[in-house]
């Protein structure tokens, strides 16, 4: 191999499934200097990777730009479609230089969106070009092998539940607010599942963190001061006052009622109701900042039974199942706002009118 026409970089040599592979640290600048084979124009059966979703790139790039001191990326996995030469360092058999022909193609098996986002981020933050990312190189032995690698790399990739993502997200202020409310509230600390985004029929909790997150976000919309402690105190006060009008919640917390029984029988113990209460509560806090607590008593006048098809069918229940679509949340909110003697917004009235015409 002519070393004058090759790209050389230090690597660690490894062995996996009887095949050599190499691990390198590439500077972010190299992401835009290395020629990556573009498969977008090929039919699916001739590609080794999915088509690049360009809509994802700005979001990932913004993540890098907004968090230059603590962004984190896992390694890219890349196949090289050319012969390479590994030159071990003196006295070493695993550390050395990998020499790759300049005309070689690099095919990304895992990480194409990360690479595209890095290139985009460097346009705004060129000072990041000297930082590094791990890259794992496999020697390409054909399309079939590349396609199998893609399938294998994604075979066991399971996206974490939304609740777990929110639980571990310390950058999202709304997530921090919801978590602070839960942890400081004696009742909701025992009613909210912090990991799951859907509850099993026999689950002991009433709500998920993702549902409570949505409800809190809607509750403080336009009311948040930016002071996390003050905003969390307001939200916690509201939800604890609300809980006083749902004695079943307290009975579940105390173990006197099974959560499954309450969820099976009543709308108020589902995420759609929690979010609808949050939306209606936002309007209540805006319009009645001084006497909103006593007005919450009107929640007791609502028939929350799932069997009350006259109220809930088509609003919160579709074909016997609770629906959490945006339209259904609005329709459930309308029921609560009317009970609280609150006027509907223009959009809420539009959705209500369309529902009544069915």
Automatic annotation (TrEMBL):
Task: Give the NCBIfam families listed for this entry.
Answer: DGQHR, DNA_S_dndB
What InterPro entries does this protein map onto? Answer: DGQHR-contain_dom (IPR017601), DNA_S_mod_DndB (IPR017642)
Q: What is this protein called?
A: DNA sulfur modification protein DndB
In its UniProt entry, the species of origin is given as: Geotalea uraniireducens (strain Rf4) (Geobacter uraniireducens)
State the Pfam families in the record: DndB
The lineage's top-level taxon is: Bacteria
